[in-house]
Design a protein that fits this description.
heterodimer, B: 3-stranded mixed beta sheet, two-stranded antiparallel ribbon, 68% helix
């Protein structure tokens, strides 16, 4: 039979693998997209190269942060002695990995998309690159909030210290992690699409920037509501259901 | 543009210098009094992490940092972050006091120039977004939120400067003061340590623990979020009237009412959780990565500090500033949205 320690080790290694493996997908695609658009923008506006390059770098650094959080969850699962034991503790470790892994995919995609269009906007109007960078950071932060929710659920799962072998509770814990993990996929990409074209639109019509940003934030906020639903259900499963 | 790049270059090189200094030199606490050890034993002990920066948490004695804990029905309530938030407020008040001192149009003081640039930046944004009169009313909220959250996110860096100060001063003082020794035997060059005598005044600076950021606690961020939500909705009611405000929830189609309500709740929740998650996540990332680097045995504790510093540079400086700005901007934009349609 599998001993309890082996079970915990199994779960935590699986969770760590899933977490970093899935999270690496989105961030890389997003960053690469920004790089390609930066090259295209430079070819159209070679004099704006320094602004384009700077905006690209800043945006890429922010895009990377969700993958860094997933890396931290992986390292936490592998190396740190977490509370929780028995079947439920194993489920909590696995759920934490799933939650953060899937949650970080879309954050990288969405934020990278925003970065790409913002760089294209800077290529169109390099003289207002500061305003463009601010708009881009605003849009990226909202696009990444679903990954932040997944991070919170992953921390709650990892540090909770559950003890026991109730199969119902095991399923509830796994359900909470899966809920938040998959629930964060959509909002990130949706908010990213909304933010991306808004960033380019501010470069086209700089005078109407306040209206554009307002519309973008409204669209992003509605897109984020499904992440809130997932967060609420995940909390309910963890603390209320069983 | 060039000035901003130059400023960033100056800050980055300062940070690298700090990393180099704290990587190669560090200040250690004296060994235990009852043991009489040889120099070799001392140098082995000097590598012990519990005796160096931060030290053993159980033996910290900071009379000034003796935070009271309140035991209630649920759990301990740790008041450390509340007191640090007060400290941030005191810092802001000192800043504004000195900014107002000697206000002049022809010869502004340097603090006045800094304050004016911050205020002008946010005033322009508020005015562009909400028009002159509304923008003027919301401007104090926006800039207060920004400054408070900004300083809260940065307050974790303060002990670092104290430690740097302790290192540099100890290095200088070791020339004159013979009780401050350099331990070199048994350690290769990057790992020489400076040992302070017992009860030396520099020990207070060298031992300073990390300041917990107030915004790494959900209580602070939820408080800020509640302030924003209360302001947004009360302003919407005041501008549109109670009936207009309720009608706006049924706005596109009649049955959109629950979706709109949940959307408003989602705005409030996401505002608080975004700030909380970013700052708390950043601090845990720094902690875990530094501890892992140290435990891998590849680097000594002091070299870990160099990595810690560079991580801090990105996670604290960039993310802290961005999140503070995003919070203030979202407060402004939510008000604008609720007031407009």
């Amino acid at each position: 039979m599998i001993s309890s320690e082996n079970l915990l080790d199994m779960a935590k290694f699986m969770g760590a693998g899933i977490s970093m493996g899935m999270a690496a997908i989105g961030a890389s695609i997003g960053i690469g997209q920004a790089g390609s658009v930066a090259c295209a923008a430079t070819s159209e506006q070679p004099r704006g190269y320094s602004e384009i390059f700077r905006t690209m770098l800043i945006g890429q650094a922010v895009t990377e942060s969700a993958a860094v959080f997933a890396l931290v969850i992986s390292l936490l699962l592998i190396f740190v002695h977490l509370p929780g034991s028995n079947f439920e503790g194993a489920a909590a470790r696995l759920a934490a990995g799933i939650c953060m892994g899937f949650g970080a995919i879309s954050s990288g995609l969405g934020a990278g998309f925003v970065n790409a269009e913002a760089v294209r906007g800077v290529g169109r109007r390099p003289d207002v690159s500061t305003n463009m960078t601010i708009t881009m950071l605003l849009a990226q932060s909202v696009a990444q909030s679903s990954a932040i929710f997944a991070l919170i659920i992953a921390f709650v799962l990892a540090f909770r210290g559950v003890d026991g072998s109730n199969i119902v509770k095991v399923c509830a814990i796994l359900g909470a992690g899966t809920c938040m993990g998959f629930g964060a996929i959509g909002p990130g990409i949706g908010s990213g699409i909304a933010g991306a074209y808004s960033c380019y639109a501010t470069a086209c019509r700089l005078k109407h920037r306040p209206v554009i940003i307002r519309t973008m934030l409204l669209g992003q906020a509605v897109s984020q509501s499904t992440a809130i639903y997932s967060l609420v259900i995940a909390f309910m499963l963890l603390f209320v259901a069983v | 543009m060039r000035k901003a790049t130059k400023a960033i270059a100056v800050v980055a090189s300062l940070m690298l210098l700090l990393a180099a200094l704290t990587t190669f030199f560090r200040v250690v606490m004296p060994p235990e009094k009852d043991a009489e050890k040889s120099q070799e034993q001392l140098s082995i002990e000097a590598k012990d992490p519990l005796k160096t920066i931060g030290g053993d948490p159980e033996h910290w004695d900071f009379p000034a940092f003796d935070f009271p804990s309140i035991k209630g029905d649920f759990n301990w309530v740790f008041t450390e972050r509340i007191i640090i938030a007060w400290f941030v407020i005191v810092l802001l008040l000192i800043f504004t006091f000195f900014a107002r001192r000697g206000l002049s149009l022809e010869k502004p003081s340097r603090i006045q120039v800094v304050a004016e640039s911050i205020i002008g930046f946010f005033n322009d944004i508020c005015r562009d977004t909400m028009g002159k009169e509304h923008g003027r009313k919301i401007f104090p909220l926006v800039i207060t939120l920004f400054l408070f959250i900004f300083l809260c996110n940065y307050i974790g860096l303060l002990p670092l400067f104290f430690h740097f100060f302790a290192t540099v001063v100890a290095m200088g003082l070791s020339i004159f003061d013979s009780s401050i020794v350099w331990i070199r035997e048994g350690l290769s060059f990057p790992n020489w340590v400076i040992q302070l005598p017992e009860g030396h005044w520099l020990g207070w600076f060298a031992r300073m623990p990390k300041f917990e950021e107030p915004t790494a606690d959900l209580n602070t961020t939820l408080g800020c979020g509640l302030i924003v939500i209360t302001y947004v909705h009360s302003k919407a009611i005041r501008v549109k009237g109670l009936w207009g405000y309720i009608k706006s929830y049924f706005h596109p189609v009649f049955f959109f009412f629950p979706l709109n309500v949940i959307g408003e709740a989602a705005k409030g929740v996401s505002l608080s959780f975004r700030l909380f998650g970013n700052i708390l996540g950043g601090s845990i990332v720094i902690l875990v990565l530094s501890a892992l680097l140290y435990q891998s045995g590849l680097v000594f504790l002091n070299q870990t500090l160099g990595v810690w510093l560079i991580l801090q540079g990105f996670l604290t400086l960039l993310v802290g500033a961005v999140q503070a700005f995003v919070f203030a901007m979202l407060a402004l934009t939510y008000t604008a949205v609720m007031v407009e349609d």
